[in-house]
């Protein structure tokens, strides 16, 4: 199939759903078809040929506006592609449109709804990316995670979401929020595609086809916040762990707190300190165009003193290193991705409480969709590893995915 | 004095020198005067009131073009200020113009010349920033360092250059080259102004007026590459160390290699791997508009395999942590800033060999101008500390500056 045909098919599919899902911040058939013709004309072939890719609207794109989910930047036209987008194009991927982000990838929702039930949120901040992959609009989509912005929407929409180790993919051309947390990753229908996609964006051949372990070793840790999670996700985590053990994996249950709550507090402190600085321009020049919740969040963060921030960095160094060391012997830690099924859209984009610590620690995290909850919405499990253990984690995730099907 | 008067005086001064120095990529009196009038009209007062500030042309500015020293981005007009620029404006600093950067802050020189002798390079990549502060055109200027792009031009031009710990200042709105190395800092005439300036950009009140130690403890380490340095900078380092001891400081000489050469190799590997990714768009779409040396550098870096990069990250983790631990008991390590006086402009922007390792390690580094070499060009010393030791390092630098005058 030509890329032009691929583009037309994808555009038809997306257009059918768009009035219901609102997954796209920019969907311009002329641009997408021209890009498809360029790929056909130049004979560009690579590992992403045949894939349609939605780009979260905080990545600069030279051919489409990049508004970061904010009226401040509505219609902004970058003159270059972000590094990740350039890598996608060079690998033959067809950029099909810009997907909706929450405002500056923080919590204020965009218009996107969950494809499985439009009364519910797709999660955030990579809302449109998760939704369009779940709905079959794009086969891949970029995301970023600062607290829980890849894993949570992947969980709510029922797709694979993969946040690699911190700094695996260049953020050149990305709008930043919290510089020591923001991590680029992606959404796909399965682990193999997620690995291929992130491997391409990172320029990491070693991640594109990770070898599967024969008998993986998992640590099961629902975390000290498991008590606040919905029973359905706890039961699913237990079911998956048992299925893994039945299929030949070693599953060891972790106990203890491992600094969970101090680490979560440190993530919130670091995110607030860095966010108020990254958005200094917007806060100075356009405070009236920030949403009330974001403006209030930044105003509350602004007076924080350096000692508080430096103490949070220290907590990351000490407790974070200790928890990373706990994970080291395992192929992956198995834990919750989200507190439950996707909440109603009217309540926001959901809580990243099961994601903050893992983003802070800087290792890879992957959501694997494995089932359905009582509301008929997707649920699954999260696999986590220490920084740099991406290949190992992807192998374990692919093994688990295969064991469950 | 009104900010408008300040602006007029600065513009006169800059204009007198500009045909000789070529320090500015954008110098638009209308924009600078309008900004001065805005500061006067709004009554903006803060720690940078009375300061004129040049902005390296890889920081986005909403009122001036940002070309990154490349014809690819000539005339590019960002729609927002970089976070550091927004912080400068909020603190009352007057942005006076955009200073020349080498191409994408790498090695291909811009037109800027050394104010002390225009046959010589000002150093790079923050060429225009160091030159204009040395010439009294701007009282402060932003810089970034990936290998040696702050310390080296500060040394060649005879001004204070301060690269704080990695990630101290938000890179939101900055053009990236090597994401785990690029660090924002600044140039000033003295340590107090450099501390104030970086403290403002970072939103770190604790750095703005660092307390001086009564009897600082210095480690003297010319590094294993001292043998390749010009005798004049070695003699100056020795002279400064003796003066410090005479003024009451403890000075202990370090011996040993401390992983110097493996760490330098790791810095080069990381910079090349990350640089080829950050410039993926430019390399894909505009290879003809890259300079021959930069294109050749990126082409050589592109085939590098992941194992090489990951090994370099591992070297940073292990050997870097060990060298940081060596520095921990000291207020600062005293070492060379550059291999000698500024070389002829026809030979390039000089060698960052005495800066790469310190950028890799992520701690603060500061150049203190202390004397003049046989060519009549500035020389001085570099003070270095472990990550997070900025306040302590600045205090030691202020002490040393006072001890030498």
UniProtKB/TrEMBL annotation, chains A, B:
**Positions with biased composition (Low complexity):** 118-131
Supply the InterPro entries for this chain: Amidase, Amidase_dom, AS_sf
Signal peptide, first to last residue: none
The Amidase domain extends over 8-394
**Region labeled Disordered — which residues?**
105-131
Instruction: Name the Pfam families on file.
Output: Amidase (PF01425)
Single GO molecular function: catalytic activity
What is the name listed in the Swiss-Prot or TrEMBL entry for this protein? Amidase
